Amino acid sequence: MKKFLALVLALAMALSLVACGGNGGNNASAGDGTSLTIAVDQDYETLHPVNTSLNVETNLINQIYDYLAIDNPDDPTGDMIPRIAESWEVSEDGLCYTFHLRKGVKFHDGSELTADDIGFSLDLCAASEYQGAMVDGMDHWEVVDPYTINVYTATVYSPFLRSVVDVPIGCKAYYESVDENTFAQQPVGCGPYKFVSHNQGDSFVLEAFEDYYGGAPAIKNVTFKIIADAASMSIGLQAGQIDFAEVDASVLSTLQSAADVEITTAEQTAFYFIAMNTEKEPYSNVKFRQAINYAIDREALVTAVLEGEGEVNSNLLTPDREGYSDTQKQYTYDPDQAKALLAECGYADGYDLGTFIVAESYKLLAQVIQSDLAKVGLTCTLEILEFNAYLDKLMDGNFGMTCLNMALQGDTQQLSLALTKDYIGMANNARWSDPKVEELFQKAVATVDETEREAVYNELFSYVQEQAVYCVLCNPTLLFAHKTGLETGTIALEGVYYLQNFQWNA
Question: Are 292 and 429 part of one and the same domain?
Fold first, then answer.
């Protein structure tokens, strides 16, 4: 009955949208060839270039700001594509990175970008508690001339280049002329789109930057509509009110059969996982953590939660990440092994885990996990929390077990955020640290030879897998739906897209 009611409410919402100015299925965007409506499932909190934490914020930053270079969407592990930096080189000792900038790159306020803006942006990133790891290893920078900057590391730091080029470049003069809130809420970047307006809880608007150095985008006006409900988003796509959206697996079959709607997929290294607070019993016991890993039927979970749109994986690494090896331990569904390990821990007759906290969006995932755990004698009570209340408990360590999604993009070194003591209370949701892992991460960044570094990471993650620090479940496939006639270009690994590549077919 509840499911039916939810569907009725979703339909009512969609019909309301039509009644309040919708086009009844005749999409105006495709007609004029210059406008686009994108649905997103939540509002943003900030557009500060290096203090973002939500997917919607990352997608907006990709349009408003620009970068020294970006990964090739068709070959993310290959050569990077120059953007603001026309070229770069690394000194023979591996300590100096020289970037040669394009001339004539303009910010949205009309001012010209120089090397000072690059240095300012790197410092801004270094001070960020959210994205500071992007410039780990940086010692200092030095402006050579308005279009050349040297960036120095104190020691050899192998992932530095690939990470530092991904820092969004902001305008130093604008930052110094406004307060912090204005800088974050009314951004001025040098990307292909400029910020126009924000109607909190409803929508936000971008406009093509006609002086963009890469050429003015074909799509001139982009409206982002906030539609939290997956069914309402699906109906909007079918009605022609929405042109493009990342969609939930629960509506995939409906959209696949809809006229004038196409589905595009993208892989990601993000993973669904169970986090166990290793500061608390019984989760501090490695055998108990291993038992939980063996207790979960990942194949069934992918079917039940993701409609089959995901890859089963129990490793923090995906096969395309540096350091992955087939020799690393994989946890398969083995309830008998789980029960045997629980018996070794003294829980042969079962154990009550108490409260299993979870944010509302992960309720179904938690229910599937709860059912699997019960089959091996581990009972728990779900506590479904509003997101901010959930986040407070997670960050404070006020929990025993939870489940959620984590996306740590970039070099394998970024996974140090989930495994080292400095990030307990942030990305290290297991609240776990081990001197051996800390040392191996430091060794990896100081290892230039790729084969040798691969071996270091293999040792590191083989150990992490044996320790069952997390219970990784799967890598969900990203699903995008768009109106027929909209060309999006390649949607890259992690679902990265650039609106300047979008255009309507004539």
Answer: yes
Statement: the pTM of the whole predicted model exceeds 0.85 = no
Number of domains in the chain: 3
Calpha distance 432→470 (Å, rounded): 10
List strands edge to edge, sheet with 203-208. Answer: 193-199, 203-208, 221-226, 35-40, 244-246, 478-483, 261-266
Is 230 in the same domain as 164? no
187 in a domain, yes or no?
no
Do 435 and 460 contact (CB within 8 A), yes or no?
A: no
CA torsion sign for 212, 216, 217, 223 is: positive
Is the same domain home to 282 and 404? yes
The answer to whether 133 touches 414, Cβ cutoff 8 Å, is yes
- Mark whether 243 and 365 lie in a shared domain: no
State the residue for tokens 């349009």: 63
Q: DSSP of 346-390, one letter per residue?
A: T-TT-EEEEEEEEEGGGHHHHHHHHHHHHTTTEEEEEEEE-HHHH
**Are residues 445 and 369 part of one domain?**
yes
Residue 273 has pLDDT above 60, yes or no: yes
**pLDDT for res 6:** 30
**Helix, strand, coil % over all residues of the chain, rounded to 5:** 35, 25, 40
Residues 216-236, mean pLDDT to the nearest whole number: 95
Look at residue 321 and give its three-state secondary structure: coil
Q: What is the DSSP letter of 110?
A: S
Specify the CATH number for the domain of residue 298: 3.10.105.10
**What confidence score (pLDDT) does residue 77 get?**
66
What pLDDT sits at residue 125? 96
Instruction: Please give the C-alpha separations between residue 60 and each of 73, 87, 186, in angstroms, as whole numbers.
Output: 18, 26, 12
